[in-house]
Amino acid sequence: MRKWKAWLFLLAFNATAVSAQAIDELKLVAEYPVEGMRGGNLSGLAVCQGNFWAVSDRDDDRYYRLHSEGPIWKAEAHAITALSPPESHLPWNQRVFVRIAEGRRGGSLDLEGITCDRAGNRYLVSEGFAAVLQDPVQGKQSWIKWPDQLMSEANRRGLLTQFNSLYEGLTVSPDGQELWLAAERQRRGLLTLFKQGDGWVCQKQCVIFAEGGTKPIPPALGKRGPLPVDFSDIAYYQGKLFTLERAAHQVCRRDPKSGRSERCWSFAATLLAPTRHYKQNWGLAEALWIDERGAWIGLDTGDLARADGDTRSYVLHYATPTGGWVLP
User: Fold this and answer.
1) What is the pLDDT of residues 304-327, one digit of tens each?
2) How far from 127 is each of 2, 14, 23, 25, 99, CA to CA, in Å?
3) 119-150 pLDDT, tens digit each
4) What region holds the Phytase-like domain (predicted)?
5) Phi, psi of 287 (to 5 degrees)
6) Rounded Cα–Cα distance for residues 75 and 72 (Å)
């Protein structure tokens, strides 16, 4: 019996040690201030046919192409001309909160993510209306019509039940046939849809991953206790999903069928460095793009100034990890 107890204790100790191991830290290559976004608040980022694009959660009538040729990126407005989003099936109280927020901070769409397929068609996700706008290379902008089961299944899994905790990011497969959505927090989750003709449908299930819980925050954020686990953006690269996890200051690679986490990389050391630190106790990483050059993380800094006094939004470029993004 003592041997069994000793063996069980050793297993528990080893499991604790493994879970406590620090994940690899991403290496910062460069950082770029962004100027020209009317509402600031860079909340989504994508590279479409070689050009950077961004959204702001304060602007309803525009999103932005980012000219990235120099040390300071310049934003060029691109008009949003589509009509109001379709019925979202959100509860009445959340719809009311959207209107209240629009009056207080500006912007009812609350654009939180942008992505594109190989052809260059762009997709923008609205958290305020739980909807996705498609801006095709040819043709007019239009709102995607969701299957009715998407919201009902999400709610059954505990997702999309709180105001300002809805869709925080999206990504699409290169061929434009599968789309993933990231539900932000309390609870967080991943949802997927497939193109069928002119519409989108769920296959078997809409929600592939959902979880609650909290996670300790990096010490540099102060003494605040654990924050709810969250997703603040999502990207697709080489057959894998990559989630931006704001509270934990990390990027995680996930299986696109189950949402299961396979490996994570931290960016806490550089983002929370003294000269780059903001006086707040939550994360500011809101936008993610992954490609062969590395990870591009956009900061939604609002009206905050970092330690050196700079109030501009920033995009941070991190190098591709040794061995690449998709190797174990």
Assistant:
1) 888 888 999 999 999 999 999 998
2) 56, 41, 31, 30, 13
3) 999 999 999 889 999 999 999 999 999 898 99
4) 40-187
5) -130, 140
6) 10
The answer to whether residue 45 sits within a structural domain is yes
Tokens coding 5: 């107890």
Query: Would you say residue 307 lies in a domain?
Result: yes
pTM (2 decimals)?
0.90
In the three-class reduction of DSSP (H, G, I as helix; E, B as strand; rest coil), residue 183 is classed as strand
What whole-number distance in Å separates Cα of residue 114 and Cα of residue 54? 7
Average of per-residue pLDDT across 63-82: 96
Whether the CB-CB separation of 135 and 144 falls below 8 Å is answered with no
Q: Residue 258 is part of which domain span? A: 24-318
Strand, coil or helix: what is 177? Answer: coil
Tokens linked to 250: 């990390």
Domain-embedded: residue 35:
yes
Residue 151: which residues within 8 A CB-CB, separation 6 or more? 88, 89, 90, 130, 160
Task: Give the three-state DSSP class for 303.
Answer: coil
Tell me the torsion sign for CA atoms 123, 124, 130, 131: negative
- Tens of pLDDT, residue by residue over 12-52, are 333 333 333 458 999 999 999 999 998 778 999 999 999 99
Tell me, what CATH number does 104's domain have? 2.120.10
Q: How many domains does the chain have?
A: 1
The sign of the CA dihedral 180, 231, 248, 75 is positive
Residue 178 contacts residue 231 (beta carbons within 8 Å): no
The residues, any chain, with a CB within 8 Å of residue 161's CB and separated by 6 or more, are 155, 186
Residue 316, beta-bridge partner list:
31, 297
Place of tokens 């929600």: 207
How is residue 183 written in tokens? 């539900």
